[in-house]
């Protein structure tokens, strides 16, 4: 199950916030939209994605941050499964 969370911030804080979110680790997808709601950039994150693979994404985010003022980040998080929750047996 996934949940969505949205943050509104200014371009100069964009890269810093995305790096913080990635460090949390339970992120499935990040979408960056301008203040009117138009999607500017969207990228999925998988468990195996690490520094070298994210470098081009960070470069694109840095360029985008220089061009836009206010924007919003929508984060899809993977919720941890509750062990007490009934589900299929393995």
- What low-confidence regions span 5 or more consecutive residues with pLDDT below 50? none
Radius of gyration equals: 15 Å
* Residues in β-strands, percent: 35-45%
Distance between the termini: 18 Å
Shape: globular
Strand tally is 4
The biggest sheet, with number of strands, parallel, antiparallel or mixed sense and barrel status, is: 4 strands, antiparallel
Number of helices: 2
Fourth CATH level, the homologous superfamily: Tetrapyrrole methylase, C-terminal domain
Can you name the CATH architecture? Answer: 2-Layer Sandwich
Strand arrangement across the biggest beta sheet? 1-4-2-3
The CATH class assignment is: Alpha Beta
| Helix proportion range | 25-40%
Report the average pLDDT across residues. 81
According to CATH, the fold-level topology is Methyltransferase, Cobalt-precorrin-4 Transmethylase, Domain 2
What is the element string, with H for helices and E for strands? EHEEHE
| Count of domains | 1
User: What is the SS-derived class?
Assistant: alpha+beta
Keywords for this structure?
90 residues, alpha+beta, Methyltransferase, Cobalt-precorrin-4 Transmethylase, Domain 2, four-stranded antiparallel sheet, 2 helices, 4 strands, 31% helix
Brief overview:
The protein has helices at residues 14-24, 51-67, and strands spanning 2-10, 27-34, 39-44, 70-78. By secondary structure, it is α+β, with helices and mostly antiparallel strands.
SSE blueprint:
Layout: E1 2-10, H1 14-24, E2 27-34, E3 39-44, H2 51-67, E4 70-78
Antiparallel strand pairs: 1-4, 2-3, 2-4
């Amino acid at each position: 199950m996934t949940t969505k969370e949205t943050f509104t911030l200014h371009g100069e804080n964009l890269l810093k916030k995305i790096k913080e979110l990635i460090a949390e680790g339970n992120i499935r997808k990040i979408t960056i939209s301008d203040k009117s709601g138009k999607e500017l950039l969207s990228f999925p994150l998988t468990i195996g994605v690490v520094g070298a693979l994210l470098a081009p994404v960070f470069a694109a985010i840095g360029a985008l941050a220089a061009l836009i003022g206010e924007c919003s980040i929508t984060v899809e998080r993977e919720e941890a499964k509750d062990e007490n929750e009934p589900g299929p047996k393995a």
